[in-house]
Write a structure and sequence with these properties.
Blueprint (H helix, E strand, L loop, with lengths): L1 H16 L2 H8 L5 H29 L4 H21 L12
Helix pairs in contact: 3-4
Length: 98
């Protein structure tokens, strides 16, 4: 059962991993690519990952542990919304469309 869950998680992660480099190359020009990739990553890890422990402990102290799962679900939905709103940048940069 554990192996199946791990394989399912790896399958989900692979959906992003294989296209990650191409998306990042499309989003930022080469001059600021490192800053454009690193800064949002660091901020999201600090905001969502840094607060997860405090939200979980707060929910446990108040006897509403299920709030933590709603918090994680909200964070996931927020990230999906941001990805959905990104859009295609190829036409905006004046590149030829295949």
């Amino acid at each position: 059962m554990a192996a199946g869950l791990l394989i399912a998680a790896l399958f989900v992660v692979s959906g992003y991993t294989f296209i990650s480099a191409v998306v990042k190359a499309e989003l930022f020009p080469t001059e600021i690519r490192a800053l454009g990739v690193g800064l949002p990553f660091a901020l999201t890890v600090a905001i969502f990952g840094g607060t997860a422990e405090y939200v979980a402990l707060f929910a446990k102290q108040h006897g509403v542990e299920e709030w933590f799962y709603w918090y994680v679900t909200g964070c996931a939905l927020l990230s999906l919304l941001v990805c959905w709103r990104m859009g295609e940048t190829r036409a905006e940069k004046g590149r030829m469309v295949d």
